[in-house]
Design a protein that fits this description.
single chain; 75% helix; 457 residues; mainly alpha; 18 helices; transmembrane helix; membrane; 0% strand; transmembrane
Length: 457
């Protein structure tokens, strides 16, 4: 139904039918612009085409064409060409209006979308680095290193160790310290990796994280946190105790008795711990009195040992949860799997949707900034942007296979983001293409009129 109040008659000619439709849409625009004279002339020219059982003559068709050109020229002075062509295709009539509020609102939305894209992209880059560290941690030969440590301990407990120390052979001691350094680096990575993975999982912008942030901020306003004991003070105190002779030897026994079962399932020596303590104490005194370099390696080794245990977080206390290496390994593996899943969601869903919505906003801003082009309405812009995001999500779902990101498939391809942006920018062309495809398929599947006509008797 148009400004003339009637529907277009079936003239039998596609070109003439298209002209009548465009003339009726132009009547709507002239009515919106209050161009009364041109509207009256065009409505009068359309009357023969709205009369039932009347076949328009050649003069009436020519009059309609001339009146349409005159009315189109008048409308062209009132509205830009792009908007007028959209109106002739069936869009709602609109008028050019340069609204500062609309432009500022679109700019704010565009900046918000770009910041969101930057946040998710940087989160994805940091996730790739953390996943590489987690893979190195999982592939570390922890049991082999502990077995080597137990073998060196057995060598130092043997009778040949004392003779080797008097010969000042530093090779076994160097091997001992090298193993401890590798374990120290591994345990340091364990502690930092646990913290980084846990923190990084909560850095992803999700609706659940927004609610958690709001709840945390609300709780801070009504209650204060209890002061906790500083771990640095405890570290200094324990390090000082270890540097004492008895603390150093007790730490050595505790180190071997704790780590060796994790690798071998049984300790080489099953004697009483006090007997082992007395034996190592006597051996340490002999080495210290002889002036061997092994005493210096023991000091360095014990500092490494305490630092690794502190970094690994296996110390019991009022504010520290005691853990084991196996628990940490399982926790890191679980966090790694969760990060891979969220990274796949970011590349398959979040980023394509944001790029599609950004393309729609950029097109709307272009309409505002271009002289002579009518801007889109606010409601239509919101609807268009949401539809662009849904179209980009559907496109990503069809083109990007599942679990194609992360360490298995690399980062997300930028081609899908470019396609999503282009689809969001020109979503009307996408809709018109689908409409034409649907019309072509429907026309091909529908029976022809000629085939349905019955032959006359």
């Amino acid at each position: 139904m148009t400004a003339s109040g009637t529907k277009v008659c079936d003239t039998g000619d596609d070109a003439l039918h298209q002209l009548v439709k465009e003339a009726e849409y132009l009547c709507d625009q002239l009515l919106y612009e209050e161009a009364d004279q041109e509207l009256e002339d065009l409505v009068r020219a359309l009357q023969p085409f709205h009369t039932a059982d009347h076949s328009p003559t050649a003069d009436e068709i020519l009059a309609l064409k001339l009146t349409f050109r005159k009315a189109y020229g008048k409308a062209r002075t009132l509205v830009d060409g792009i908007t007028l062509r959209e109106v002739l295709k069936g869009w709602a009539p609109t008028r050019k209006s340069s609204s500062i509020v609309t432009g500022a609102l679109l700019a704010v939305i565009g900046i918000g979308l770009m910041l969101s894209i930057w946040e998710y992209s940087s989160w994805s880059a940091r996730t790739d680095l953390l996943l590489e560290e987690a893979e190195d941690f999982v592939e570390f030969e922890h049991e082999s290193e502990l077995m080597r440590l137990v073998e060196l301990r057995s060598f130092f407990q043997s009778d040949g160790a004392r003779e080797a120390s008097f010969r000042l052979d530093p090779e076994p001691q160097r091997m001992f310290v090298d193993v401890l350094k590798r374990l120290e680096s591994h345990y340091t990575l364990e502690r930092t990796l646990e913290h980084n993975l846990n923190e990084h999982l909560h850095d992803l912008w999700t609706f659940k994280s927004w609610l958690a942030t709001f709840h945390r901020l609300a709780c801070r306003t009504i209650e204060s946190e209890a002061p906790e004991e500083s771990p640095a003070t405890e570290m200094v105190a324990r390090t000082g105790m270890i540097l004492a002779p008895e603390g150093r030897l007790a730490g050595l026994v505790n180190w071997v008795e704790t780590c060796a079962p994790a690798a071998t399932g049984q300790l080489a020596s099953q004697r009483n711990i006090q007997e082992v303590y007395a034996e190592i104490t006597a051996r340490f005194d002999d080495l210290a009195n002889s002036g061997a370099r092994f005493d210096e390696y023991i000091d360095v080794m014990m500092v490494f040992r305490e630092y690794t245990m502190y970094q690994a977080g296996r110390r019991s206390g009022p504010f520290v949860r005691p853990t084991t290496y196996v628990q940490s390994l399982h926790q890191i593996a679980n966090w790694r799997s969760e990060l891979l899943r969220r990274l796949d969601d970011v590349h398959r869903w979040y980023l394509p949707i944001l790029y599609g919505m950004l393309g729609s906003i950029v097109y709307a801003i272009w309409r505002v900034l271009t002289p002579g082009v009518a801007p889109l309405g606010r409601g239509y812009t919101i609807l268009r942007t949401c539809f662009a995001g849904l179209a980009a999500m559907t496109l990503s779902m069809l083109l990007v296979p599942s679990n194609a990101t992360g360490l298995q498939g690399g980062t997300g391809s930028p081609i899908i983001y470019l396609v999503a942006f282009v689809f969001g920018y020109s979503i009307e062309a996408f809709v018109r293409t689908l409409s034409r495809l649907n019309a072509s398929v429907s026309q091909a599947m529908s029976p022809r009129r000629d085939a349905l006509r019955k032959p006359r008797a």
